[in-house]
Amino acid sequence: MKYTKVTAGALAAVVAGSMLIGGCGSKIDADAVVATLDDKEITLGYANFVAKFQQATYDSYYLSYMGDDMWSQDMTGSGETFEDSVKDEVMQNIEDRYVLDAHAEEYDVSLTEEETAEIEEVAQNFLADNSDEAIEQMGATKEYIVEMLRLNQINSKMYDAIVADVDTEVSDKEAKQRAISYVEIATDSYTDDDGNTVEYTDEEKEELAKDAKKFAKAAKKDFEGAAEDAGYEVQTATYGSAEDDDATLDTAVLEAADELKEGKTSGVIETDTALYVVTVTSDFDKDATEEEKEEIVSERQEEYYSEVLAGFEAEVEWTVDEDVWAQVTFDKLFTTESEDSDSEEETTADETTEGTTSDTSTDETTEGDVSATEAE
C-alpha cells in the first residue's frame, strides 16, 4: 500500500499547507463529466480534488488505529465500504455548494474584491510552493483550488443569510435546566486488577444494594460527605426534563429527579445496569439554561437551513455518472507528521519522490465550512 506523507496541521487548512506527497500521479480522466446540475457540468478533475482532501483528513484521524484496509471496511454494517460512504458525502457536498451558489444572488451574497483576490493568492501560493509531483498526485490546478475556496465562502455566507430569518428568542421556560449531583453504582460488571471484565454474582449484587441504601439514607443529610465516606464518586449533570431526547442519563434517574425539589435527595433508583442516588442542587441553573438557549437557536437554524436547501435541491435535476465517479479511489494512503519535524528525516522507504508546501491558508479563506474535514 502506497503512503503519502502529510503534515498534521495542514489538514485543517483549505489548501493543505505543509504537505509532502509522493509523485505517482492521478490516473483519472479529469475532463470527464462526473455530475450535472441542470445544464451545469462538474468535471471529474474537480470532484477528485475535493475527494482527495476528504480522504487525507480521514487518514490523519483514523488510519493509525483502523489499519491500512480502513477504506475497504464496512463501518455501519450496511454493506457499503467506508470509501463509498465518504465518496457519497463528497458528492453531496459538491451538489449542496453548487445549488447554494445558484441562489446566492437572491440573498445578495457575493464575494468582495478582497476575498476574491485573497483566494487567488492562496491558490497561486499553493501551486508555486509545491513540486510538480505533488501537484499531479493531488490533481490540483489553480482552477480547482479557486473553485473550492469560492464555493466554500459562498456556502458560509449563504448559511448566515438563510438563517438570518430564524427566531432567536428563547424563553427561560423553554430552555430551563436543572442541576443534579448523583452517584452511580454499577451492578452488571466490574474490572478486576488484571483488567478483566467480571460479572457480579447475585450475592455481590445484594451487598451492593445494601450499601446503596445505607448511602441514600446518609446522603439526605450530607450528599458529598456521605459519598466520600462510602468511597463513591459524585458526578454532576444538567437537564431539562426526563423527556429530553438527548439526555445521557437513564430515564428512570431523571424521572426520579423530576419528583424532587431543590436540595432534596432520592432513594435508591434501580436500572438494568446500575443503582443511582440523586440530589437536586439547583432547580434553575442559569449558566446551563443560557447554553441551552444557544443550542435551541442553533438547532432552529440548522433545521431551517436544511429545509431551505432541500427545497432548492428539489427544484433541480442532479445526476451523477457512477462509472466516471468510480475512477476516484483511496488506494494511496496519507500519513501525518508533526509540523516542526524534518521531512527529509521522516521520508518513508517506499516514497520515491516528494514535494513540499508551505502553509498557504488564511483566516479569511478558511472560515465557515471551508475545512477539508467537513463534507455536509
Give a short summary of the structure:
The protein is α+β, with helices and mostly antiparallel strands and 376 residues long. Helix content is 43%, strand content 14%.
Key structural traits:
376 residues, alpha+beta, three-stranded antiparallel β-sheet, 11 helices, 43% helix, elongated, disordered N terminus, disordered C terminus
Major sheet summary line: 4 strands, antiparallel
What's the Cα radius of gyration? 27 Å
Structural shape:
elongated
Tally of strands: 11
Structural class determined from secondary elements:
alpha+beta
Distance between the termini: 29 Å
SS summary, helix count: 11
Question: Can you walk me through this structure?
Answer:
The chain is an alpha+beta fold and 376 residues long. The chain is built from eleven helices and eleven strands. The chain has a four-stranded antiparallel beta sheet, with helices on both faces. Helix 1 packs across helix 5, helix 3 runs antiparallel to helix 5 and helix 7 packs antiparallel against helix 8. The longest helix is centred in the C-terminal third of the chain and has 29 residues. The radius of gyration is 27 Å and the shape is elongated.
What is the fold's blueprint, element by element?
Blueprint: E1 3-7, E2 33-37, E3 40-43, H1 44-66, H2 82-102, H3 113-129, H4 132-138, H5 142-163, H6 172-175, E4 178-186, E5 189-191, E6 197-199, H7 202-219, H8 223-230, E7 234-239, H9 251-258, E8 269-270, E9 274-282, H10 286-314, E10 318-320, H11 322-325, E11 333-337
Parallel strand pairs: 1-11
Antiparallel strand pairs: 2-3, 2-10, 4-7, 4-9, 5-6, 8-9
Helix pairs in contact: 1-2, 1-5, 2-5, 3-5, 7-8
